[in-house]
Amino acid sequence: MFHSLERSISRAVSQYLQSKFDLEVPVTTEQPKQSSFGEVALPVAFQLARQLKKPPVAIAKDLADGLKDQIEGIAALEVASGYLNVRFHRGWYARRILEGNDFDTQELSIRKTIVEHTNINPNKAAHIGHLRNAILGDTFVRMMKAMGTRVEVQNYIDNTGVQVADVVAGFHFIEKKTAAEVAEIAKRPRFDYYCWDLYSRVAQMEEIKQWRGETIHGIESGHGPLSEMGHVVADAIVECHLNTMLRLGIQYDVLPRESEILHLQFWASCFEQLKERNAIYLETEGKNAGCWVMPGSAFRENAGEEDSKVIVRSNGTVTYVGKDTAYQLWKFGLLGKDFYYRKLRTYPNGQACYVSQSMREGSERAAFGGGTSVYNVIDSRQSYLQDVVAAGLRALGYDAQAEKSIHFSYEMVALSPRTCVELGIELSEQDKAKPYVEMSGRKGLGVKADDLIDQLIERAKTEVDSRHAEKPEDGRRKVAEQIAVCALRYFLLKFTRTSVIAFDLQEALSFEGETGPYVQYAAVRARNILRKVGAVPDFKGSLTEDMLDTELQTEDLWQLLLEISRLESVLAAAVTSGEPAALARYAFQLAQGFSRFYHDYRVLDEADEARRNVLIWMTQHFARQLEKTLNTLGIEVPEYM
RNA sequence: GCACCCGUAGCUCAGGUGGAUAGAGCAUUUGCCUUCUAAGCAAAGGGUCACAGGUUCGAGUCCUGUCGGGUGCACCA
Fold first, then answer.
1. A532 CA vs B61 C1’ separation (Å)
2. CA dihedral for A357, A359, A363, A368, sign (positive or negative)
3. Which of A130, A358, A417, A542 is the most buried (most CB within 10 A)?
4. How long is the CA A31 to C1' B22 vector, in angstroms?
5. Mean pLDDT over residues A564-576, rounded?
């Protein structure tokens, strides 16, 4: 509601300026510093002061007089130190919300937006850095869907890369296992943990350099024991990752795999296009002799020869950038090729998740890719590579798509020194001096996602048990899980994308203050009130505009209603700026507002009927809007807390 | 060396396209459970928005420079 009224105000002002002064100026609105100034403030008079050669106060006065009674829902226009302050008609505003006219109708778009996120190398367990990626991506997807956008979620599986090769080399050269034996091990629980340890062991060995080449070659060839083992490892780890993510409510539509990019000649096709357009050339001298490279000038200003990026190695294999360029082309429907698909799993909510495959046999009808815009959720350390990929698109003449291929970047998750100590991680003198310590899969240094989730559940379970011993065990378990997921998602969402998270276990495990559970708690309390009220009457008949107006003269109530009605506005801004943290913060503010309300007003004990109805209605409206906000953040509201 | 990100309260962080007296949480101190659940509420202290210039009627926000910290700049991804 706030969103639409705010816009109608700025439209009215804009029209007035046009008709009276023949001026076309963007009219911005803002929230006044103090609520006593009203609901919306317009600093437009300051901008116009010079043009109109009049003091701001005079201009604002003119606007206030000229627009008096011209905008529906506005009770007063006031001038204060040059600002034009707007006061809403409280009863009108509330009544509009009550009637359900408070949303801007959004048509489901025909254009498809593709979001690629998670993208964990399928060679070890997921850690909290991966969680930031997946939770950011998943939440952004939910936000866009809430706005009516059609979204397809992809999780790219690099099943033929160096990281998988290293683990395969570990099984083959160190543990002397066959593919069949590895398949047996993979059936055990937490195979991803096993590989986590194996990977860090292998990665730190001297011999890995020799082993790696042989293994990659075997994997890329697509046949033979090493290739077979590569599939066994990668497929099993992908299952682990999907399970981990599902615990957090994160699901995917399709998993395009690198093995198919290679075997279905996606790269070959892309390679031809790049050569035709002279986007890459065969280097004949220098350190890159024998490689196909993209000149540095394509993606970097004042680049020299040394900035060129190798796309095809001298041994003929393709680098990640090359494969990713082919993948990007496919995402936009520009490759003229498609994968075959099979259903990998069906989620409990009925959604299917497909995975690519290279053969027609056994494939199922499914259509993916061909998006109009693409978001790649990838951490900021890879921005250089993303620039190269975008340059590849431009070099092929796809400037429009390069524009629409957005690197949805975020800073890394590192570990706080305190947490390193708690986890028994030994730090070098150099690391001790740092504000945070970067995680490293190679060193096996990090907090595993499932471990953290388990810890959060245990902690939540203890709290739930102490408060609700009378409830059945499985119910308490479920509540604890919901709280844990909420705490984790909120923790990783409350930081803006540009902020490095120095992960601190104690902070992450906290359920008080600015945390997810605090927000959930407010929602649960609201529900409790509504439950005790019983059948909530339809207030459309019983709450008139006048009654609402009278009750909402109480400032706290009015401020709470205003805050609740900002959801659409906040959501739109958060999607535009690509910042899920903005929505998370809003959820917290809403909860804060309600907690105060809960403390200050006794809804059930209210003697005055009109007031009681308003309080119940406010509670109901709050519950609805907060739940909508939480759902968009991927958070559920427990039965009790 | 070049590129990107960060620098705001003791700590962790917010501060839409510049606007009125810079905000939260944690921590500290102090109140509030006979109450719709205290995972809560209320109050207090705590600031040269790294620094210096510039643009502007107006700068935490934009520009330039300096100083700190981080991350990239592979025939790894």
1. 47
2. positive
3. A130
4. 15
5. 94
Among all chains, which residue has been given the structure tokens 């359920």?
A: A511
A46 CA to B58 C1' distance (Å): 9
Dist CA A180 CA A186 (whole Å):
10
The whole-number average pLDDT for the span A108-135 is 93
Reported confidence tier of residue A307, pLDDT bands at 50, 70, 90: confident
Please give the radius of gyration of chain A, using alpha carbons only, rounded to the nearest integer: 29
The answer to whether A294 and A395 are in contact (CB under 8 A) is yes
Amino acid present at A479: V
Point out the residue nearest to B25 (C-alpha to C1'): A514
Q: In Å, how far are A195, A247, A493, A611 from A235, measured between CA atoms?
A: 13, 19, 29, 60
Residue type, A373: S
Task: Using a 7 Å cut-off to protein CB atoms, list the covered nucleotides of chain B.
Answer: 4-6, 12-17, 19-21, 23-27, 35-37, 39-42, 57-58, 69-77
Would you state the pLDDT for residue A535?
Answer: 85
Q: Could you give all domains of chain A from N- to C-terminal order, each with its CATH number?
A: 2-88 (3.30.1360.70), 119-259 (3.40.50.620), 265-333+369-407 (no CATH), 417-508 (no CATH), 516-632 (1.10.730.10)
Partners of A249 in the beta sheet?
none
Name the nucleotide with the smallest C1'–CA separation from A412.
Answer: B71
Instruction: Please name the nucleotide lying closest to A37, CA to C1'.
Output: B20
So what's the pLDDT on residue A239?
97
Q: Which residues contact A560 (CB under 8 A, 6 or more apart)?
A: A593, A594, A596, A597, A618, A622
Tens digits of per-residue pLDDT, A326-336?
Answer: 999 999 999 98
The pLDDT value recorded for residue A343 is 97
Q: Which residue is nearest to nucleotide B23 (CA to C1')?
A: A33
- Stretch A318-345: mean pLDDT: 94
Tokens of A366: 């499914």
Cα A175 to Cα A169: distance, rounded to the nearest angstrom: 9
| The pair of three-digit structure tokens given for residue A590, joined into one six-digit string | 């809403």
| Separation CA A254–CA A108 (nearest Å) | 21
Question: Alpha-carbon distance A278 to A336, whole Å?
Answer: 20
Interatomic separation, CA of residue A381 and C1' of nucleotide B73, rounded (Å): 11
The answer to whether the beta carbons of residues A156 and A252 sit under 8 Å apart is: no
- Taking the C-alpha atoms of residue A588 and residue A605, their distance in angstroms, rounded to an integer, is 27
> Distance from residue A499 (CA) to nucleotide B6 (C1'), in Å?
7
Give the pairing type, strands A292-294 and A281-282. Answer: antiparallel
Token pair in block for residue A83 = 């600002």
Do A353 and A253 touch, CB atoms closer than 8 A?
Answer: yes
Q: How many Cα atoms within 13 Å fall on the side-chain side of residue A403?
A: 5
Q: State how far the Cα of A534 lies from the Cα of A88, in Å rounded to an integer.
A: 32
Q: Which nucleotide is nearest to A119 (CA to C1')?
A: B77
As a rounded value in angstroms, the CA-to-C1' distance for A435 and B35 is 46
**Percentage above 90 pLDDT, chain A:** 77
> Within 10 A of A149 (CB to CB), how many other CB atoms are there?
18
Average pLDDT over chain A, rounded to an integer: 92
d(CA A169, CA A171): 5
pLDDT digits (tens, 9 = 90+) for A12-62: 999 999 888 888 888 889 989 888 899 999 999 998 888 888 889 999 999
